# Entry
Amino acid sequence: MTTLEVIAPLERPITGLQPDVLPLLEMRDVTKRYGGFVALNKMNFFVGPNEVVGLLGDNGAGKSTLVKMMSGINPPTSGQIYANGKPVHFNCRADSEAAGIETIYQDIALVDSMSITRNIFLGREMTNTWGFMDHDAMTAKAIEILGSAVQISGIDDPNKEVGFLSGGQKQAVAIARAVHFKRNILLLDEPTSALSVRETEHLLAYVRDLKAQGTSSVLVTHNLYHAFQVCDRFVVMSHGTKVYEARKEDTSIEEVTYHVIRT
Amino acid sequence: MATAQSDHIRQAIDLRNSRPRSSKAIDWIRTKPEGGITVLFATVLICVIAAALAFPGFRFLSEANIAVTLKAIAPLGIMALGVGVLMIAGEFDLSVGSLYSFCAIVTATLTAQWGGDVNAEGASAVAPFLAMIVGLAIGTAAGALHAVVTLRFNIPSFITTLGAMLMWRGATLLYHGANSLRYKPSEPFATVFGGSVGVVHASMIWFLLLAVAFYFLLHHHKIGNHFYAVGGNRNAAVAIGINPARTKIIAFAIAGCMAALAGIVAGVRVSSIQPGGGAGLELVAIAACVIGGHALMGGRGSILGIVLGTALMFTIQDVLLLVRAPGFYFEMFVGGLIVIAVIMNMAIRRKS
# Structure
């Protein structure tokens, strides 16, 4: 009797690094399916305390899916998410907000027909016990927010409708909003796409400042030079899974570029 | 440090606030959707009043005419408040006209059954109120039902409520038949909803009170803020943590409740209810909102716009009646007005 030789694909070796301290947020084997399409395939990802992670990869690699999952608006099909080592379920935005996560979305997530102030406080209105909004307090706070964080060029009226702003100004408002409310982790999904060079420099410097103050960030970008300016660790994705991961000191911009374009 | 960086914003705001009142008013007209309608309404009103003073035969300012106009505005205005809120949240309800009839018929029938008719022996004072609560509850529940069907099956509310419009119209005939129904509730209900203070009919007072309540709900309460957000950019609202389903269910329920109330108020005014009386009102209510600066796609609009849009339509209707123009002129005028109002709003938006 002869034994059949089974030719099966090998278990894929686990790519990447293991966290050496308890991560703020960790995702283990998360999978996201849309019908038959697998957008994320057993992805492992973590964000440690006091670090900036660069999430890289070509279009359609699953970066935005992962970011939306971390911000709670896109629950995983399977897999487990841990916040500070405790298993959590991210089913809606409120869950990720409870974990201290703020997101700057690629598609900006502002309501054009509403004022800057109302956009900044949307879903987090300052209200009295009856739910009525305190417009004066929100406007005062909005003025402060607009002045700090990212210096937003040319905005001098917090009651202006967002629809009247330029693309860069809109992005700046979205950034200012997330920066103001962030607690543990700031997710930046292509934050610099509509920003001027000066505004981009300002934002990257701000991400470094945040790290110094103890807020971790995840920076999704196509621009490896921006990533190399601020990130401590790089994760390269392709076809919904991680293909490369390295710390900044162990790699070079050429090597990361190679892994982004290889797949 | 943070405060110093914001100084240029504060200075700009102070500068704007210190400008003369007139330039602030011009700014308001240019940037707010209700600004244009305010100008239009004021212009029409001034012209009509001037004409009334110049030609004594044109009885616009007579007490009887003012009383009749104010009476006529209220039912449609109340309905338009609900429709407008729903439009801001980005949905339509075409069935409000049918609900207007259905809820009023149910209320009138129950009022009579529970001994609330003014001529009934030992007429009950509470029965009309209880019947009204049932009517409003049906309207609210129907609105919520439209929302649940729309959201659960993810279909356009235009379709859901087009079906609901026919369904409630049929239900009215099934429940009552095609005859008109007498509706003479006992006191104090009759005075509360059908009395008047001078030339101002009770229904107008209710409309204004509701408009003030809706103003605070829409412009100052956080649920109003969420209506604008969900209607303006649904994805952004989700991303920021607003539950769009819950928000839209509330908006639909408000529209249904207001339609029921409008039907009851209109029934009290004329002491009878026509089963087909609400047909076509849904489009007139939407027209009033659009004239008042509401965006068809949601996210834009104001209570002042709804009130002025309704008032402008009825002022024009009244003027046409006074000059004895045949009824079709009203429809022609309103048709033209809708298009002109939207063109004006777009022009204003582009300029600013």
Notes: Residues 244-270 of chain B form the longest helix (27 residues). Chain B has a mean pLDDT of 88.
